[in-house]
Amino acid sequence: MAILNWTGNPLVDTGLAVMIARAGKEKIEDFTADDFNNVVSDGIWLAKANRQLKAFAMVVGINSPLTNPSLNSSLRKKNGGKLDPRDDEGLKQYCKLLIELKESALKDLKEESALKGKSGKFLCESCGERPATEVLSKYKKRIGRDWFPLAGSIGSDAQTLPAASRTARICSQCLLSIQFLPLGSIIVGGKIACFQYTYMELTQLFVKKIYKETINNLQLLKSGDKLPAIGQGKGTKIALIELIDTMYELQSNKRIYELPQFTSLNIWLFSNSGQEPDSDLIEIPNDALTFLWNAAMLRREEIEKLVMKESKKIDFQLLECIKRKSEYAGFYPQKETKPASKELFELYHTKVLGNSSSKLKIAEWLAYQIKTKLSTGNKNDNKLLSKLIKEAAYKDKELLAKIKGIFAELAEEGLFSLEDYSLLFPRETETKQIRIKNDGFKWIWFYLNHENINDKKPEGGDNLFTHPLIKAFAKDTFDYYQKEKGMKYIEKKILDAFKKGEITTSDLQRWFINLAKIKEGYTNEKWDDLCRDDNGNNMTNEVRFQFRLEMANLYRLAGGGK
Ligand SMILES: [Zn+2]
Asked: Strand ranges (DSSP E) for 209-336?
């Protein structure tokens, strides 16, 4: 039977995972009372390690007996502030407290069942399982931020625990776990990060990896020097690489073939030093974790290379993009760098951003069509193609109009429908006027930068992700002019005029009014709904283009064209 359980407190659990790793165990169930005793031992090894770890001050500040200048005279300013190893009054006191905490925790373990519900004892506010310790109060010490992160101190700050009114109540075991936390610490964006999976075995393996690296780094360190925590000064990138590496190790040892179902990850971030203690949370839901898991399995080297090259600005780093569910610029071509593989790009889009693979396939197929058309065309076409491939060409309005012209050509050839278009460029829902989400242009640009692109068009659905009136409006207009003026008129006065850019809002209005005379449903309100913005101004760019696509299809279906 397990002597300890995970507490749910990410700080305490990370410290606990270090203790388990130190004992050479992989599961909390295998961690025995003897292991516990041996791991803490006389506390000296831990005190020495903590003194060298920069993470220690980040976890408990500088008022711990181990680092407080009043107990470690060499740390005083007048002595240069550099710790002299012989100056170990603080170390002695720290170890003494560690031993007492250990004994008290072991006693709690033995008496655990007897204590349940025992009156007069407060329960620990961190684990809720064991009685609050009396070890510190015996020495007239309070539990503040110097013993438990974010515990607050009386009269100055109220943080996660109600210590603004009284001292926090924490058990010996939880306090002891915190002393192990620096050895399993990794820094994400300047804060200590605790990785808490819903599947705790993964947490244990992750912490074990960080612990082992930290211990190795400590062994290489000169005595008296301080060891920066893993990931310090690197934004979020090192944490992400560690995360991917742990997944890769699990996969290659065949310990865990697949990510356990429904697993998600919370990365708790906190800083406990200085005047502004703070905490934050990065939630990595199951889908995003599946992206990382599959990326670790299929494209580990590629993704790690990308992450290593990231800029220092957190906003542009992959972990932050995963957190915000936003596009990651690193997947797109950049000056002198090729874009990411299609596999990695599509994994990110489907898992993290929730884009369907049929959307991406349409973009890829359009890239193929654009490339084919322009590379077999004249000099100007070739020039246009190289412009479209170039960085950020998709942001250029003139170029976008040219791309849309190719869409219309494809529609005239019967290859591309309004349904296909609206799948890739669905209607923006936040605006009154019809406007599209134009991420699709960026994806086309991504695929244009690849050699092996798919020439097969995916099965388009029948769903229309735009205003349904556009389709009906085009059909009724087509029927009207076919009857009144014939196919030649439609070709010259509508399709060719569109191509020349001659169709304006007033043409659209004219067609609308024509229909209003003969058909129900072409009312002022409908026009307003379809063509006006919030201020009542006509805004018909997108409506005209979609109308044109549909018109081209109708014309071809009716037997028009060459
Ligand atoms: Zn506790």
From this structure: 265-271, 278-284
pLDDT in tens, 494-551: 999 999 999 999 999 999 999 999 999 999 999 999 999 999 999 999 999 999 999 9
- Mean per-residue pLDDT for 131-156? 75
Residue 173 CA to ligand 1 center (angstroms) comes to: 6
pLDDT at site 194? 94
Rounded distance from Cα 12 to ligand 1 centre (Å): 8
Diameter of the chain measured on Cα atoms: 103
- State the Cα–Cα distance between residues 142 and 147, nearest whole angstrom: 9
| pLDDT of 81 | 61
Backbone angles phi, psi at 482, to 5 degrees: -60, -40
Lookup result for tokens 């290379």:
305
Each domain of the chain, given as residue ranges in start order, spans: 10-186, 357-448, 468-557
Are 57 and 270 spatial neighbours (Cβ–Cβ below 8 Å)?
Answer: no
Ligand 1 center–CA 66 separation, angstroms? 22
Whether the predicted pLDDT of 83 surpasses 70? no
What's residue 59's pLDDT? 87
**243 alpha carbon – ligand 1 mean position (Å):** 28
Q: What is the pLDDT of residue 163?
A: 47
Please determine, for residue 148, whether its predicted confidence score (pLDDT) is greater than 60: yes
Enumerate residues 6+ apart whose C-beta is below 8 A from 411.
Answer: 417, 418, 548, 549, 552, 553, 556
Alpha carbon of 329 to ligand 1 centroid (Å): 44
Q: In the predicted model, is pLDDT for residue 368 greater than 50?
A: yes
3-state secondary structure of 305: helix
Number of neighbouring beta carbons within 10 Å of residue 123: 16
Judge if pTM exceeds 0.70: yes
The three-point CA angle 205-207-210 to 5° equals: 115
How far is ligand 1, taken at its centre, from the CA of residue 214, in Å? 26
Distance, CA 310 to ligand 1 centroid (Å)? 40
* Cα(265) to centroid(ligand 1), Å: 23
Q: What is the pLDDT of residue 394?
A: 73
Distance 144 CA to ligand 1 centre (A): 15
Distance CA 384, CA 378 (A): 10
Per-residue pLDDT band for 560 (boundaries 50, 70, 90) equals: confident
pLDDT at 541: 93
CA quadruple 24, 27, 33, 39: dihedral, nearest 10: 30
Query: What b/e string do you get for 185-208 counting C-beta neighbours within 10 Å, with b at 16 or more?
Result: bbbbbbbbbbbbbebebbbbbbbb
**Gap from CA of 130 to ligand 1 centroid (Å):** 6
CA 263 – ligand 1 centroid, Å: 25
**pLDDT band at residue 275 under the 50/70/90 scheme:** low
Q: Report CA 476 to chain centroid distance, whole Å.
A: 47
Contact 325, 313 (CB under 8 A): no
Q: How far is CA 451 from CA 97, 300, 363, 368, 446, in A?
A: 65, 22, 14, 9, 11
Q: Could you tell me the distance, in angstroms and rounded to a whole number, from the CA of residue 40 to the centre of ligand 1?
A: 17
Report the distance separating Cα 509 and Cα 479, nearest Å. 17
Q: Are the C-beta atoms of residues 312 and 420 closer than 8 Å to each other? A: no
Average pLDDT over residues 286-294: 94
